[in-house]
Amino acid sequence: MGSRTQSKVCAHCGREFAWRRKWARCWDQVRYCGERCRRSSGRLDRALEDAIRALLRDRSGTICPSEAARAVERERWRDLMEPARSAARRMADRDEIVILQRGRRVDPTGARGPIRLGRGSAFPAA
Ligand SMILES: [Zn+2]
Asked: Residues with beta carbon < 5 A to ion ligand 1?
């Protein structure tokens, strides 16, 4: 992971991205890693984060991101798998949740393959 001053976590996809010369004058205001993320739906992002919170509140253990996708979109939930993982990365960056693989905490940006989500140190009280 790079230094926090030279990289940020995208407000949509939750991936870490590095400073670029074109942002030299506006780096403090940059929130998204690129145009596609900038045009993303804030409403869907919030719905998925709410679903993850609600599922974790109801349960003592961990959840799968697909459960949050299903909670938001019962029929076409598969379309929401990547958005659900993005929501998980954003929440992990805020320590609201932790991302786990085989029971171990993993870096949200680099995680590949199936993940589970658990409550983090900053998980909000009900
Ligand atoms: Zn992004």
From this structure: 10, 12-13, 33, 37
